[in-house]
């Protein structure tokens, strides 16, 4: 069978990294099939004899997607199409599977006007209903599809995915440096490492650590991600609250330094409101760093009692929970995420995906 993959969305982000790894393993494991990839970039890292790259340079959610891309798909007459999001020509009627990362944009996108929001929801619903199968990253999304969009439950699947890009942690040079001196970290610190999307709830953390400072508690927070470190609004908030000595922004740093940051931190804190699959916990997972995360069903189904949980509803809720952790003097020794690493692997994910495709 010839399987066609829509990878026009690939960018420099964690979901793209996940899809790249997934696609590579799928091509290798299902090598009795041939593959064609529609792309908007030069995918030089795909070098497989059973795979063809078609650079079409048609953006997601564009007018050309509904016209020129539809014409290309009709001419190619493929056996099976895999879309890794809902963006596709609305009049495409051949057999296709949609892999739906989340419904985040339904709840947390700031649409500029009503027409933009209506168009988004209309295309989303139509394209999902036309999918022969929909593969989701969590059971909550499956339930939302059935209840909110009237999708037939028999068409929905929930896979156990994997934490991407973990191979980059292997064979990293062992740096002999003092992170605290180099970056002027004078106190114990927590780490937050993710994007500045509104549902990640990161601004509350600044207010939480402000309460600790007002209580004369020597405790710092490190934003360990280049994108969020460039966030002007967040930096202004830190200045307005006079938290420059307690909140630290790390820009581009070496992977070896990042490992030291995690090893020396007290906890990684993750107060997200919405999380289909917690890709961003890959780093603390593989560095065996203790984690405090939002009490979300999708996270608890993966980590169970391996991590601590908090309610991210209010600043006071987060503050009281972190305060309790500190007062109880919870230790970070003997953290063991081995069972999680062994369960959520590329091999397990691809094997399940191949079964669904069949």
Name some characteristics of this structure.
358 residues, alpha/beta, seven-stranded parallel sheet, globular
Q: What global shape is seen? A: globular
Q: Could you tell me the mean pLDDT?
A: 90
Rounded to the nearest angstrom, the radius of gyration is 22 Å
User: How big a fraction of the residues is strand?
Assistant: 15-25%
Describe this structure in words.
By secondary structure, the protein is of the alpha/beta class. It contains 16 helices and 13 strands. Strands 3-2-1-4-5-6-7 form a seven-stranded parallel sheet, with helices on one face. A six-stranded parallel sheet has the order 10-9-8-11-12-13, sandwiched between helices. Helix 1 (14-29) crosses helix 16 (346-357). The longest helix has 17 residues, at 114-130. It is globular, with a radius of gyration of 22 Å. The model has no long low-confidence stretch (mean pLDDT 90).
């Amino acid at each position: 069978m010839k399987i066609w993959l829509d990878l026009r969305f690939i960018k420099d982000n964690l979901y793209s990294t996940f899809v790249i790894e997934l696609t590579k393993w799928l091509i290798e494991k299902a090598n009795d099939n041939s593959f064609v990839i529609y792309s908007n970039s030069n995918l030089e890292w795909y070098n497989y004899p059973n795979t063809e790259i078609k650079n079409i340079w048609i953006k997601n959610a564009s007018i050309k997607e509904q016209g020129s891309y539809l014409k290309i798909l009709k001419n190619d007459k493929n056996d099976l199409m895999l879309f890794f999001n809902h963006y596709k020509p609305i009049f495409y009627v051949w057999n296709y599977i949609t892999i739906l990362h989340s419904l985040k944009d339904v709840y947390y996108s700031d649409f500029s006007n009503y027409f933009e929001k209506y168009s988004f929801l209309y295309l989303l619903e139509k394209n999902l209903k036309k999918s022969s199968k929909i593969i989701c990253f969590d059971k909550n999304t499956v339930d939302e599809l059935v209840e909110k969009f009237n999708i037939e439950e028999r068409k929905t699947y929930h896979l156990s995915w994997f934490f991407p890009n973990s191979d980059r942690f292997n064979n990293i040079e062992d740096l002999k440096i003092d992170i605290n001196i180099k970056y002027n970290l004078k106190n114990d610190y927590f780490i937050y490492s993710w994007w500045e999307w509104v549902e990640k709830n990161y601004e509350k953390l600044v207010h939480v650590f402000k309460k600790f400072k007002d209580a004369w508690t020597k405790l710092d927070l490190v934003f360990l991600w280049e994108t969020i470190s460039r966030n002007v609004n967040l930096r202004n908030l830190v200045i307005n609250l006079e938290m420059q000595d307690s909140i630290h922004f790390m820009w581009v740093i070496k992977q070896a330094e990042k490992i030291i940051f995690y090893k020396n931190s007290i906890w990684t804190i993750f107060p997200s409101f919405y999380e289909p699959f917690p890709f961003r916990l890959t780093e603390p997972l593989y560095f065996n760093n203790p984690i405090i995360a939002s009490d979300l069903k999708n996270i608890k189904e993966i980590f169970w009692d391996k991590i601590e949980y908090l309610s991210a509803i209010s600043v006071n809720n987060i503050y009281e929970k972190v305060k309790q952790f500190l007062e109880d003097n919870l230790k970070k020794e003997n953290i063991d995420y081995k069972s999680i690493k062994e369960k959520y692997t590329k091999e397990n994910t691809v094997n399940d995906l191949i079964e669904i495709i069949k």
